[in-house]
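To the wet lab folks,

You asked to see what we're planning to order before we commit. Fair enough. Below is the target structure as tokens, and below that is the sequence we designed to fit it. If anything looks off to you, flag it before the synthesis order goes out.
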């Protein structure tokens, strides 16, 4: 299993599309390995395609746009949104132990590229 986590510092980014870095966790019988990568420029469909090319099958994030979630689904990547801005290593450990508590959070973008063009929908940025 490979899990992607968008980062702001060591914390889970509040919005996946604004994250300057991604942690990629590879989990297998040998344990958990983590790699920090810089994502390609944020444009519709680019990050889901990039993560799919890395073999990621799950993303843990704070907020995500509905269109992005659809792209991830098309690549067979499970989206777990509503993750709090906590240390990524702790979040992944809680997820793997089945103890991660989330409330799915999705932005309803107003058609503007690169950000939320609205004042509601639960978007906190």
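Sequence we intend to order:
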């Amino acid at each position: 299993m490979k899990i992607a986590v968008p980062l702001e510092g060591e914390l889970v980014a509040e919005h996946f599309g604004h994250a300057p870095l991604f942690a990629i966790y590879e989990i297998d019988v040998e344990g958990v390995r983590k790699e920090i990568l810089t994502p390609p420029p944020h444009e519709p469909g680019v990050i889901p395609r990039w993560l799919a090319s890395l073999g990621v099958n799950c993303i843990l994030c704070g907020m995500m746009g509905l269109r992005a979630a659809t792209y991830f689904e098309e690549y067979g990547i499970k989206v777990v949104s509503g993750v709090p801005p906590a240390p990524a290593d702790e979040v992944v450990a809680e997820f793997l132990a089945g103890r991660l508590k989330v409330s799915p959070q999705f932005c309803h973008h107003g058609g503007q590229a690169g950000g939320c063009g609205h004042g509601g929908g639960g978007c906190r940025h």
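Structural context that might help your review: The chain is about 20% helix and 25% strand. The helical segments are 46-53, 66-74, 88-96.

Thanks,
Computational group
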